[in-house]
Amino acid sequence: MMKNPVETIGNLIEKQGISFISSIDENGFPNTKAMLPPVKREGIKTFYWHTNSPSMRIKQYKNNSKACIYFYDKRFFRGVMLKGTMEVLDNIKIKKEIWKDEYTKYYTGGIDGGDFIIIKFTAENGRYYSNFSSEDFKIE
What we know:
This protein is α+β, with helices and mostly antiparallel strands. The protein has one domain (5-138): Roll (Pnp Oxidase, Chain A).
């Protein structure tokens, strides 16, 4: 049993170069996509990514906010799945907080003239896998 889920899982997440996000499509099926790591994280409860506003995933999150994210540590064959909700944020305050000038290569219109948008995941619970066993946990 994990002594400190926030520390154990936070350390695992910090070291990963890829994250996986999942949404639910219009037919009720899960859709999973590999992403870069979150650009901002608050413990193991709240995560932020940036993406293109016309993407399929944005439409899916607007239609059904239920979501799942996953982080996998290949070296030690362990991972964590977090379940919760994903919000689409088209708010200039959070965009300014997240924005970096290097993002212009992805978003030619810039911070407010293109398709730069933020998604925010809020975790409710999770499942941690390590040493050939799994453990469910709640997120406070």
